[in-house]
Write a structure and sequence with these properties.
The chain has 233 residues and is an alpha+beta fold. It has eight helices and eleven strands. The structure holds a DNA duplex (13 and 13 nucleotides).
Length: 233
DNA sequence: CCATTAATTTAGT
DNA sequence: ACTAAATTAATGG
């Protein structure tokens, strides 16, 4: 839901939520983005992009968390990754195709900037340093995801859950304690388990003193053990 | 506006 | 699959 038209006049020059890539841009280029972008916000649960839609704009996530996912034939959801702030959504879809291959939904309240895709492309072509930064972020994403899916196909359920916890702790929140941004169902969708198995393993970890779980709040009590479990599946 | 209740969603077994 | 708990929406004052 678009809820705040008043933020439309965004000055990209002194945006405090700039990406690493955008920090490299010249004043002129930032003004170009400013002319061709629009800031809005979404509420938790809102869908930002449906898979299959055209990529007319790049969405830059300024704050909040977003899930990137696809739906299988049986309508089962597979979450590809959790996207944190200061990243662009749908870059693989931009360079690989003109259609969004993934759907995006807000896990928290979120603020974003829509940037015209042609302008974005132009900046990539014109500014090598900018392109380089974008390339770095796309590659990192790709590596991260590749590793996550590798382990998912090779590990048993304990290893997968351990991986997911480590993923949240190290990559998303960079803390030992955090609050899951979504339901058990979605947690299961992220690692390809049934909801039942996912909660069962979480409860087991809690009972074994590896984690402390209170609703959606998780504290890692024994990170070494978690890593061991992750390694041995 | 607040309080109650009804309905939907989520968690745990 | 079923139950309980929690969250959200609707209703009435």
């Amino acid at each position: 839901m678009i809820s705040d038209y008043s933020t439309k006049v965004n000055s990209c020059r002194d945006c405090r939520e700039k990406s690493c890539a955008a920090a490299i841009l010249h004043v002129k280029e930032l003004d170009l983005i400013r002319e061709n972008s629009r800031a809005t916000s979404f509420k938790k649960g809102d869908i930002l992009v449906h898979a299959g839609s055209m990529t007319s704009h790049i969405i830059y996530l300024k704050s909040g968390l977003v899930k990137e996912y696809v739906k299988g034939t049986n309508d089962k959801e597979q979450i590809l990754q959790i996207v944190c702030k200061f990243t662009y959504l749908g870059l693989p879809s931009l360079f690989g195709d003109r259609v969004n291959h993934y759907s995006y939904a807000a896990l928290t309240d979120v603020t974003v900037c829509y940037i015209d895709v042609n302008i974005f492309n132009q900046l990539i072509r014109d500014n090598g340093n900018f392109a380089y930064e974008i390339l770095i972020s796309v590659s990192r994403d790709s590596l991260n995801n590749f590793h996550r899916f590798m382990s998912q196909s090779q590990k048993k359920i304990y290893g997968r859950v351990a991986d997911a916890i480590i993923y949240f702790s190290k990559i998303i929140f960079e803390k030992e304690s955090f609050e899951l941004p979504f339901t058990r169902q979605e947690f299961a969708d992220l690692i390809g388990l049934s909801r039942e198995s996912a909660t069962r393993v979480l409860t087991k970890f809690n009972d074994d003193g590896i984690l402390s779980i209170d609703g959606r709040n998780i504290v890692i009590l024994n990170p070494e053990m978690l890593i061991q479990i992750s390694k041995h599946g």
